[in-house]
Design a protein that fits this description.
The protein is an alpha+beta fold. It has twelve helices and nine strands.
Length: about 450
Amino acid sequence: MKKGFLSKLKKQGKNLFFWDKSPSLEIQVFNVALVILIGFALFLAIINLWLQNYSLVKLCLIVVVSLSVFIYLLRVKHAFKTAFYLASFSTYPILLFNFFHNDGIIGPTFYILSLIHLLILTIVNTKHYTFWSTLNVLFYFLLYCFGLYYGELIPENYNSRFEILTDHLLTYSASILGVTMIMFALKRFILNQKRKVKEKTVALLKINKDLKQTNNQKDRIIAIISHDLKNPLQSIIQTLELINSGDLTEEEIKFLRKELLKSTKNTYKMMEDILEWSSFEIKNASRKEKKIKIKDLIEDTVEILRVIAKQKSIELEVNYHENPLLNLETDRLLLIVRNLVQNAIKFTPSGGHVIVDIYSQEEQLTLQITDNGVGISPKRLKNIFEQDIKSTYGTEQEKGTGMGLHMCFQSAHKLSGKLEVQSTEGVGSTFKLVIPTGIN
């Protein structure tokens, strides 16, 4: 309890000195200066109480009240300029009063005058330095001349040399402490700005890297469109022209129609891959979360995938070991399911088997796709999820872009999950997706 109170007190004290709500150096330094001056005035009140200089004790208390008003104007009313100019111009009449009631040039008034001038210079614009410096020097000169030539008009408050030494030593020490705190505030602000600049630099570098990667990806997409889509489309056109020429037999036309259908399907699938990747990665599709049971979500997709599997005489088995309620981006999950199962079908030979197992445990959904297909080589397995667009071919020469697994991997991370793979070349592969259900 005591530790918590001390921690809270320390936090409040830090916030009092270093008011981080404003990004302005001038405002932060002014805030520090006001807090220091309140402490300084209270300290001088104690000294003058000990010296029995009650007029200065009253003055110090008036200063504390005035400074508190300035803090209120600064932090509550956000009237920085009003608070600053009131504080700056009021210091000179206060110092004048202190000079006449604290033994003139024998007293420590000039230490305070130097401290006040330093505070003002750290806040005002450099173009105002001449005005404030001239005012300070002129004020010092007039006070010193008056004390030197008309010192008898100033009442004596010190009763001994020890009191003079003590007053000077304590006031000077307090002034040095004030200067140190101001420099600390400046240093702290500069370090904070450097940290923010570094964070922004890192963020910009990441953005530039992502932009570069996206641009490279766009270039590759253009290359795919210009090569892998252009060539099949040209082939389709040439085939249609050949069919329309009337120079072919019925058997040749039948064969060409079959090849034409296969080529068109492959080209359409490639186009789907490109459009799907563009939707989820380049356009950064907005989050659309939905509450739904996993079976209800993927059932329609599974039926379509069964038709695709049947065309290759592949058995697609889906086992719902649990049917958990989900609350997540359903489009992303469907993207992963669709791509992983299609990949399994694509790389499994005719007569093969693809199994989808669905588990749920401790608010985690596990989706596992196993096939007895051609498997993945160790070299390819090492970088299986990297962003590397290139043409790939299935067991029946089904052509793809190679983007699917990268999309699945990225989407798994965006669902706060992970995607893993185990594969043996010539035996088959197992892809395992683990994501939070989103239901607490």
